[in-house]
Give the backbone structure.
Amino acid sequence: MGFRNRLPGRKLAHRGLSVTVGVQAGGTTLLAVPAFLLMIALFVYPFIYGLLLSFRPKVGHWLANYQIFFSDPFLYDTLGKTFALAIPVTCLSLLLAIPVAMRVRLMQRQRLLTTLLVLPLTLGTVLVAQGMLGYFGPQGWFNRTMMDLGLLLSPVKLTHNYTGVLLSLLITGFPFTFLLTLSHVTGIDPALEQAAATLGARPASRFRYIFLPLLLPGLAMTFCLSFVQAFSVFPSAVLVGEPAGATRVISIAAYHAAFEEYDYSMASAIAMLMGAAQLAVVVLVLSLRSIVYRGPSAGGKG
């Protein structure tokens, strides 16, 4: 009888605990509502508005903007020129970031060196481009020093062309890629490398069979983020590039349509194509990652 009498009390206590947990969960959910509404206001609504606007051209049917883009070489060439800049810059940044991150993780003054490496990221694209005009220009320090040393007979053109934009994107994009790569490298348990070294594995073998498989998921995500950043190039293409020729990227075409021709519908269509191109590359890279490697993104510590 005593046991039976205690059952209703236990049920009530359990029910009260469930109600308390439910109230706490509901309160936590309510805390996320402002962030959710802000995301809708800043991202979802502008995207939907721009998408609908792209199907309302000034003249013609609802697909006229996209038809004009792919029928005009001056417009659709901008897509290829943007890929020709973004892909090499992303690959070079990643190839440089991997060995630097592998070395930095072993240094005692890791924070100081990391701060120096990410300094260009704090300067901004415009300031870096302005500095490049004075350093890599025809009469800049680089050409003068190389000519004084006898390594060059005449100034080499490194600005107002494809090379200038490539260097600018590499200078500003490398710190971002390096930080992401360093976070993945330091997330791998050092005991794995130490065990391989104890068994006689050389550094090249340790990187190939231990670090690389564990880094692949992180490197794929780093590639995607760095590519999206490089694909949206605009100031560098104007300041140190050739905006009417080799470096007329798709963002310049969107700017021209919006603020020179005042055709916001066409500018929205170009922006949608720009986003679709970035999304296609991201989906492709992440799909290849799942095919090549399926496992944890890091070895874990502890």
The longest helix spans residues 73-104. Residues 72-292 form a domain with the MetI-like fold fold (CATH 1.10.3720.10).
